[in-house]
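Deviation from plan, reported transparently: nicotinamide-adenine-dinucleotide complex.
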Amino acid sequence: MKKHIAVIGYGGQGAWHCRQIEKSDVVTLAGTYDIKEARMEAAKADGVRTYPSSKAIFEDPAVDAVVIATPNDDHKRLVVDALAAGKHVICEKPVEMSVAALDEMIDAARKSGKIFTVHQNRRWDVDFLGVKKIIEDGDIGEPLRVESRIHGSRGIPSDWRCQKKHGGGMILDWGVHLIDQMLQLFGQKIVRVYCTVTHITNDEVDDGFRLELFFEDGKTVYIEVGTYNFIAMPRFYMQCKKGSAIIADWTQKAKVAKMTAWHERDVLPVQTAAGITKTMAPRDEITLKEYEVDRPVSDVHDFYRNFCAAVDGREPQLITHAEVRRVMQVMEAAFASAESGQTVTVSI
Ligand SMILES: NC(=O)c1ccc[n+]([C@@H]2O[C@H](COP(=O)([O-])OP(=O)(O)OC[C@H]3O[C@@H](n4cnc5c(N)ncnc54)[C@H](O)[C@@H]3O)[C@@H](O)[C@H]2O)c1
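Because the crystal trials were delayed, the predicted structure below was used instead.
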């Protein structure tokens, strides 16, 4: 039988959940509640049942689970209350703004015995799954460095996302997705974190950041979010032991260049601005094979399918407490590094 889910917060993301839940094969929509009357009216106009309060949702025995889709500073209270009322909980990202706050939520989940997970839906993004596929296929060997970038040119949204007290800023908004993706690829220990932030359009919170993660085995990950970039750099760049790969943007296939032999004969120098170079000359087709990788297939509904299977005890939950805690630890270290201007030594 389908699980009945109610959604708290009928803004952009809450409404998105409602539309997905209505199309789902495993969950059905019980209704929604939003503190803003205008959003309650919008829900009614969309044909979504409304509850008079979040308490009314928690007290409804027909509701199995709750999605929390409010601004970031009102996640913990609602998650803890929902768990205490015996509901399973899906919380929007970022789950909270500190490891300490997340630990209170994890503790509440343990006490309730209910499923508590976080909607890290960008694990299903096909561009990211392309990177994962290249690593798993192993054709260009182990990664030495992965660079993950998103560039926009409209600054930070002017709603609660530009206010510190609501948990605004790009590290919490987009960083949480991009860090989560990279930590899905690499379980090795992170030993150092260095981060700088930008304040081009907003003084209060970061409107972009550049984050370096240094792993114990020497591998590095670079994550960059910009909101003042009028030409976007590629979404992903991978440097691996036997080649390189690039994914230009969300819609493109990965392009791979595999080194088939290290030594080259008769390298022809190329002309650069003020001289010639052999070092930077492109390789010939004898030592380099170039090809494209098909985009993997992905279905965001697998998130709800796994959630229901976890509630029924048929599968472990995909997005675990340990994983969201590790991402939160990285974000805390990023803030500490940006604040001090120093590289932070960690063991994450
Ligand atoms: N996973 C994703 O891809 C994704 C995408 C967008 C947003 N989000 C997350 O979803 C959450 C909401 O973001 P959004 O873009 O929908 O913001 P939004 O401003 O569009 O909507 C938030 C809504 O919550 C309501 N609200 C605030 N406090 C409330 C409360 N105590 N009870 C009930 N309603 C309350 C507001 O009135 C508003 O309508 C954030 O945590 C955000 O980071 C996730």
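The longest strand covers residues 143-151. We consider this an acceptable substitute for the interim report.
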